[in-house]
Design goal:
2 copies of one chain form a homodimer. Chain A is an alpha/beta fold. Chain A has a 7-stranded mixed sheet, with helices on both faces. In chain A, strands 9-10-13-12 form a 4-stranded antiparallel sheet, with helices on one face. In chain A, strands 1-11 form a two-stranded parallel sheet. Chain A is 34% helix and 15% strand. Chain A folds into 2 domains: 126 residues, Aspartate Aminotransferase, domain 1, CATH 3.90.1150; 218 residues, Aspartate Aminotransferase, domain 2, CATH 3.40.640.
């Protein structure tokens, strides 16, 4: 081993879902929105002055921060914007999780949590969800260095009632509690209404799912101004200019278009409810979903088998080869037409 | 103090140059390119399919990595792309600077180096440049945890001959040596030609200066495949999808347009050489610049005074209120017209 190799940070990186390059694929594997971005964002893109690309973007992301603050009726000093919610949560880990006590998160959850903890050398404990994949609030009462969980949870799609979310926050007033709400717009109730009552609460959301802009990389955190300032201080210590000019302009236009947003999420919710019925008839079981995906297991066929068979038919879903969930498929909700193609393929396979 | 405050990471963040929002400003303060992005990038932008923004970008940034690799005649596995060179260098610090020995960099240099070291808790030593602002190679022979310096240096604009750069790399084979070449395209010779001979060398460049795309946030590192793999592993542990779809597409188009790139850099170099003559006549002294800026001190007038007077006239340059350099101004090279406006203002002030 060469000397310089000894000081390389060794990590087990997160493996993202496949991004197939072949055309005519039905892509239900990374929880993207099947509908295009808001026409308001498209209009902003078409009017964008490309000459300005020679200039640095606004390091304070003022226009996008302002648009998000207006939408959620909070102060601009309560909003932090990052390069997707992964960037936001990673920055929040670095900023707030500096205790010797372990950070707590569910064992079946977004698998990036343990990866961030590893890369930043943060002690953590993965708390088992129960046999029905439910996050048990009282499991989070023990002393810890911070708490994070998604609501709805991923990949289970299970939603936790706001009173139970509040119970976890209230039992952890001495640490920061992060609620990762990437999927909240598909039927859940956001913890944002608790922000003013709990100064230790950070709510994280994203433009990648409900706002059809995964390709732009925009995520945000909302919390009390002190938390947001601490995150900005760390952000300005790493990279002052993270959000590029197009993201600021298109993102602000998108968030202002409430009507389109509500229409798209309503369509996805309707397709999801219809999909639940079809999957049941096909012999699948699943926790009830309030997200834009369903986490389903077939009564007889193996998850890995269905996954491979679907892939042969150019339909991509997500399969996790991990303990407790290795018989499950995570199926993103597409358009009605895409879901019908999926159901036809499943009938063929099963 | 509330309990959760104790675990917040406290940092002294980098303060970026002002991004004035008023129109009709002559902006010579952040070393941006005065010319617009390549027409090839503009064409790619106009043809961009906005519907695809609903999908995640390619996490491997294949097309942009490939275009950069082709341009520099290296392998795709030798190129790492990040959100501006700040993101690239920050990721390189996290990946490679994990020794107990201090990382070395010049005391008068890009001020982010100490900020990154602080935020990641990396020990470091700022090595004084000599009285002419020269980086003395033999100062970097002592045991260390890694080395980084810009070439040309910022904010001095001083270029170090490649043989001297190689001397530092050769004396530090047991650690990673990073050469930060944000300004190399304005007349210097890149260390890229040393990549195959030194497996401990990482060269970092950016689209923000010579490629007129500061607003897109694209930087890259080139090195041996093992270094690039280690950086990608860390990157995939933080955020799989950092480079958004427009950046990948516009960036690849820009790097392919060699002719426009060479025309713009030649114009900037010509304007710089002309500006040196004018500044000398106006009573300024400065280290010889091979960058797109000049680091100048007036023989009589104070830097802070000139800075404020220029600002009153809507001309922004950069002033650092720091020991050893508090009489200097860093003046970005604009168009000939912008520089003439600057010289007229300076005549008026002095």
């Amino acid at each position: 081993m060469r000397e310089w190799e000894k000081n390389i940070r060794r990590v087990e990186p997160y493996v993202p879902g496949e991004q197939p390059k072949i055309a005519n694929v039905i892509k239900l594997n990374t929880n993207e929105n099947p509908y295009p971005p808001s026409p308001a964002a498209v209009k902003a893109a078409n009017e964008f002055d490309l000459d300005t690309l020679r200039l640095y973007p606004d390091p304070c992301v003022t226009d996008l921060v302002g648009a998000i603050a207006d939408y959620y009726k909070v102060g601009s000093n309560q909003v932090f914007v990052g390069v997707g919610s992964d960037d936001v949560i990673s920055m929040a880990f670095l900023t707030f999780f500096n205790s010797d006590k372990p950070v707590l998160f569910p064992d079946i959850s977004y698998s990036f949590y343990s990866v961030w903890a590893d890369v930043y050398r943060i002690p953590y404990k993965a708390v088992p969800v129960d046999e029905n994949f439910i996050i048990v609030s009282s499991d989070y009462y023990e002393p810890n260095g911070g708490v994070i969980f998604p609501n709805p949870n991923a990949p289970t799609a299970l939603y936790k009632e706001l009173s139970e979310v509040e119970d976890i926050i209230a039992h952890n007033r001495d640490v920061i509690v992060m609620v990762d709400e990437a999927y909240i717009d598909f039927g859940g109730k956001s913890a944002l209404e608790l922000i003013d009552r709990y100064d230790n609460l950070l709510v994280i959301q994203t433009f990648s799912k409900s706002r059809s802009m995964a390709g732009m990389r925009i995520g945000y955190a909302i919390g009390n101004p002190e938390l947001i300032k601490a995150m900005n201080d760390v952000k300005f210590s790493i990279n002052s200019y993270t959000i590029n000019r197009p993201s600021i302009v298109y993102g602000a236009a998108a968030v202002n278009d409430k009507q389109y947003f509500e229409e798209c999420t309503a369509k996805i919710i309707a397709t999801r409810e219809r999909s639940k019925e079809r999957l049941k008839k096909l012999g699948f079981e699943f926790p009830d979903s309030k997200a834009n995906f369903i986490f389903a297991k077939h009564k007889e066929a193996k998850g890995a088998y269905i996954f491979e068979e679907l892939k042969k038919r150019n339909i991509y879903v997500r399969y996790f080869n991990k303990p407790r969930i290795d018989d499950y498929l995570r199926i993103s909700i597409g358009t009605d037409e895409q879901m019908d193609a999926l159901f036809a393929a499943l009938e063929d396979i099963l």
